[in-house]
Each structure stands twice: as structure tokens, then as C-alpha cells.
């Protein structure tokens, strides 16, 4: 889908007003299709042995019921793993016991099982809520499986604590090595609908730094043998994500990554070590779309710089074959590489004319801003705050010991800064 300048300007304005938005298109044959943006969370994990792979498929099955319950039982359509045809979620044409079906499933030489569920009746429409997954049930330590959740930003705001706990628990159980969470196109269950999305996705990516390109089927995980390691590396985070396995080792391990991300100039960056091989990262309080008319988001640029040794430079951002006369503008390999570098200091994405250098938030300075460490006598009456304790605030009297002597900061060493009189 290509758009005239005026049409794209209206779409960009829509996204600026609400990153959770859908657009309707009518086709000559009378079909109507709804495509739009939403929140997603995707985990990438390896199969291991055939038994381990089937156990991980059972974990995915558990996620189906748990996620559907969290969203208020909104799944109405599911795809049958054998035929990929859509059926009512509660109908008799889908397996009645997904665990039994998973344990006995075999599709010949491929031995892949695909799960797909959506809140929409039409699987060609972008969903408000969806779960999709592909698991290889044979011995495979090279390629990645995936598990993706789609949901609205409004829902996430009301369920962020419960969903965050659920997502990180699932990542630990699956042994996920990569994870991404942010704003992007809500991908329909119908794979062919990607062809309708890719042109619009490429055009919108030139207007928003925070729009992620997340399509597990095409992001390179099928081509590990030609790219050395699965996925060939990671892509920059747009809000939150998981680093594990070989990618964490490229960054020096969990302790080294957590320490590298501790910086007084970037108090919004939070880290959580899920286990020695997994680190969860969040940047800011919630996903943001970050229009290119504003400076490059400094926190995301800082995280991208720290994680650059683990970045994949050859990730596939589009995969649908195009007709010879198809004039859709989509991500080419060259444009994909430019997009992957968009948070870097030397990037020219989307254009050199638009590009502005990353802006670093002013860091609290021990000389310019009154500060104190936990246990030190408070140097001045008033309200004090600690960036690495989630901007926690306390009222203090001069001479009293500063708090949090035994409290570890979520994203770095605890330092208290004076804010204002009491």
C-alpha cells in the first residue's frame, strides 16, 4: 500500500493522536479489511531436544488459557494447526484438549506446530488481542521458535503488573534468548495479510522512531544456517525486551549489562535479572511512538549503544513476495540496515535533513544539584528523590541519615537528590 502525501499526512496525524488505531480499506470485490497498530510482546526460544521442545509447546498451550483469561476471554477465532483454517474458538472443529493434541501432534517431516488465536472474526484483520506461536517439535538447537502476544495499550495500562509478571515467568520457562515489547502493527493471523501491511509499515517507520517491525515469521529466524546464529543478532529495543543466551554473552553477561545500563543521565532505564542467562530491560514507563519531528529519544539511543555488539545487521524486515508490477515501497536489505541503526549517533534515518542528534537528558550533578548517598547526613531540609528507586520521594530533616542503606536500586546505585522545600 502506497499513499499520496496528503493521505500519509492524515495517517501520521492519526498515529500521533493515538498509537492504538485502525484503518479500514475496501477492495473492488467488496471485501473490507481493518489494519492498525497496537502493543505486542514476542519471545524467541530454541527447541532443544525433541522432548524439551514438546514440553515448551505445552507451556505455550498453558499461555493460551492464561492470556485469554487475562483479556476477559476475548478470543473468538482460532486456526487449526493441521489446515490453518479459521474456526470459532469454542467450536468443535478445534482441538478440545490442546495438551493432548500437542503431545500427539506430528505433521510429517516438518514436525512444526502452529498456534493462532484472535479476538477478530476475520483473520485478515489486525487484532485487538491475539496469541500466535510456532514451535519445532524435533531436535533443533539452531533455529528459533516464537511466542507472540498482541493487545491494546489501554488494556496493558490496566494490567501491566500482572502481564509483566506473566511474561517474564513465561520467558524463564521457555528459556527465551530474545524478547521484544512495544508498539507495532497488530499482525493478522493470516500470513498473507503481511503483504498488505509491509508497504504501510515501511512508510510509517519513516515518521516514528518508536514503531517496531516485529513479524516473527520473517525476521530472519528461518535463515540461521546462512547467518551463523539464530536471527543473526538482536534489533534495538523500542521500549522493553529480553537479552539472553549468546546475545547476553556478547555483552559480557548479566552483571556487565546491568552495570553498563546504570547511568545517572538515564534513570528511566530499568533492568531485572531473571536468571544468570536472562536480563529484562525497560525504558520509560510505557511504550511511546517517538515521532521523527522530535529529537532521537536519548534513553533508547543509550540502550542501543550498549547493546550494539549483539545487534544483527542483516535482519529481514519484509518477506512477502511481490508481483513484478507491484509498486509498494517496502524494506529492502539496505533500508533494513539503515532502520536498524536509527538510534545511532551516525545514523541518517529517516533522512539526513530530518535527522537530529540524540539529546541526552540533563543528569543530576553532585556539584550543580545537592545530593547525598544512603546513610549520609541529610545536608538540607526538604523533599528528596532517588531516580534508581523509581523516582521515590521522601521528606528529610537536615542531619538525619538518608534512607535506603540496604535497598538496591532497580536500575543503578541509589543517590538522593534535593528537589524542593518541604
**Net shape:** globular
On the 0-100 scale, what is the average pLDDT?
85
- Poorly predicted sequence stretches spanning 5 or more consecutive residues: 220-230, 362-368, 408-412
Strand content: 15-25%
Question: Which range best describes the helical content: under 10%, 10-25%, 25-40%, 40-55%, 55-70% or over 70%?
Answer: 25-40%
Commentary on this structure:
Strands 1, 2, 3, 4, 5, 6, 7, 8, 9, 10, 11 and 12 form a twelve-stranded mixed sheet that branches. Strands 13-16-14-15 form a four-stranded antiparallel sheet, with no helix packed on it. The model is unreliable at 220-230, 362-368 and 408-412 (pLDDT under 50). Strand 1 (22-26) and strand 2 form a beta hairpin. The termini are far apart. By secondary structure, the chain is α+β, with helices and mostly antiparallel strands. The chain is built from ten helices and 16 strands. The chain has helices at 5-17, 50-70, 98-104, 153-174, 194-205, 224-227, 245-250, 254-260, 298-307, 333-340, and strands spanning 22-26, 32-45, 77-79, 86-88, 112-118, 130-136, 145-151, 178-185, 211-212, 240-244, 269-275, 278-283, 371-372, 382-386, 392-396, 416-420. Helix 2 runs antiparallel to helix 3 and helix 2 packs antiparallel against helix 4. 26% of the residues lie in helices and 22% in strands.
Amino acid at each position: 500500500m502506497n499513499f499520496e502525501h496528503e493521505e500519509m499526512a492524515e495517517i501520521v496525524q492519526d498515529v500521533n493522536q493515538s498509537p492504538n488505531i485502525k484503518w479500514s480499506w475496501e477492495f473492488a470485490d467488496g471485501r473490507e479489511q481493518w489494519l492498525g497498530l497496537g502493543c505486542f510482546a514476542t519471545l524467541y526460544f530454541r527447541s532443544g531436544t525433541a522432548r524439551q521442545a514438546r514440553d515448551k509447546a505445552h507451556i505455550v498451550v498453558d499461555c493460551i488459557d492464561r492470556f485469554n483469561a487475562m483479556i476477559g476471554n476475548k478470543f473468538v477465532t482460532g486456526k487449526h494447526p493441521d489446515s490453518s483454517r479459521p474456526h470459532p474458538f469454542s467450536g468443535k472443529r478445534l482441538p478440545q484438549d490442546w495438551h493432548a493434541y500437542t503431545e500427539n501432534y506430528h505433521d510429517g517431516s516438518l514436525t512444526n506446530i502452529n498456534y493462532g488465536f484472535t479476538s477478530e472474526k476475520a483473520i485478515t484483520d489486525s487484532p485487538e488481542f491475539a496469541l500466535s506461536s510456532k514451535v519445532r517439535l524435533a531436535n533443533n538447537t539452531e533455529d528459533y521458535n516464537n511466542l507472540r502476544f498482541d493487545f491494546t495499550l489501554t488494556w496493558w495500562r490496566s494490567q501491566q503488573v500482572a502481564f509483566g509478571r506473566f511474561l517474564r515467568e513465561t520467558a524463564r520457562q521457555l528459556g527465551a534468548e530474545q524478547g521484544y515489547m512495544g508498539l507495532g502493527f497488530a499482525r493478522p493471523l493470516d500470513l498473507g495479510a503481511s503483504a498488505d501491511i509491509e508497504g504501510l509499515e515501511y512508510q510509517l517507520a519513516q515518521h516514528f522512531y518508536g514503531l517496531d517491525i516485529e513479524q516473527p515469521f520473517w525476521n530472519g529466524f528461518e535463515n540461521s544456517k546462512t547467518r551463523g546464529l539464530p536471527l543473526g543478532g538482536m534489533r534495538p529495543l523500542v521500549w522493553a525486551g529480553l537479552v539472553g543466551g549468546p546475545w547476553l554473552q556478547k555483552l559480557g553477561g548479566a552483571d556487565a549489562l546491568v552495570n553498563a545500563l546504570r547511568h545517572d543521565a538515564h534513570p528511566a532505564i530499568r533492568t531485572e535479572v531473571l536468571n544468570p542467562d536472562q536480563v529484562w530491560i525497560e525504558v520509560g514507563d510505557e511504550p511511546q511512538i517517538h515521532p521523527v519531528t522530535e529529537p532521537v529519544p536519548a534513553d533508547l539511543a543509550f540502550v542501543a549503544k550498549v547493546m550494539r555488539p549483539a545487534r544483527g545487521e542483516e535482519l529481514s524486515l519484509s518477506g512477502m513476495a511481490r508481483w513484478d508490477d507491484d509498486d509498494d515501497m517496502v524494506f529492502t536489505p539496505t533500508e533494513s540496515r539503515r532502520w536498524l541503526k536509527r538510534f545511532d549517533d551516525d545514523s541518517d534515518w529517516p533522512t539526513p535533513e530530518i535527522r537530529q542528534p540524540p539529546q541526552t537528558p540533563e543528569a543530576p550533578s553532585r556539584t550543580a544539584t545537592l545530593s547525598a548517598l544512603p546513610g549520609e547526613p541529610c545536608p538540607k531540609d526538604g523533599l528528596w528523590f532517588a531516580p534508581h528507586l523509581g523516582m521515590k520521594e521522601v521528606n528529610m530533616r537536615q542531619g538525619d541519615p538518608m534512607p535506603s542503606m540496604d535497598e538496591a536500586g532497580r536500575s543503578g546505585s541509589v543517590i538522593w537528590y534535593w528537589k524542593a522545600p518541604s
